[in-house]
Amino acid sequence: MRGRHKRCRYSRRNSASGTYGYFKEHALAKGDYKDTVKEQPGSSAVVNGVSEDKFSIGYSGIGYATPDVRAVPKAWRSGDVLLLASAASGFMTGAVVTLDGGHSLGM
């Protein structure tokens, strides 16, 4: 796919989810999601959708990760060391997942 531009598709949890609120507060700096971000009923639905579309990205708890997706490293502030989401790192809620070979794009 090198050299070809594809529009990234985004997935998120529904507003009743604690993950939704956590991601909105911490990753979006209390901002809001775009209308084009697809709402999913649960974390497994987000991961399933991402695993089926290499141009998509979403977030869920790290416990929902499968071999078909990967966690995208995160830095808390510009210039910080990137942390990979894992049970060992303690960075679990709000992990961003995307297909191997996909792009690490923010929402």
What does this structure look like?
The protein is an alpha/beta fold and 107 residues long. 17% of the residues lie in helices and 20% in strands. It has one domain: D-Maltodextrin-Binding Protein, domain 2, CATH 3.40.190.10. The protein contains 2 helices and 5 strands. A 5-stranded mixed β-sheet has the order 2-1-3-5-4.
List keywords for this structure.
107 residues, 17% helix, D-Maltodextrin-Binding Protein, domain 2, alpha/beta, 5 strands, disordered C terminus, 2 helices, globular, 5-stranded mixed β-sheet, 20% strand
Q: Mind telling me the CATH superfamily name?
A: Periplasmic binding protein-like II
User: Helix count?
Assistant: 2
Q: What's the CATH topology name?
A: D-Maltodextrin-Binding Protein, domain 2
Order of helices and strands: EHEHEEE
Mean pLDDT: 76
- The 3D shape can be described as globular
- Assembly state (oligomeric): single chain
Report the major sheet: 5 strands, mixed
Arrangement of strands in the largest sheet: 2-1-3-5-4
Give me the Rg, rounded. Answer: 13 Å
Helix content: 10-25%
Structural class: alpha/beta
Q: Would you identify the CATH architecture?
A: 3-Layer(aba) Sandwich
Task: Kindly state the number of beta strands.
Answer: 5
How many domains make up the 3D coordinates? 1
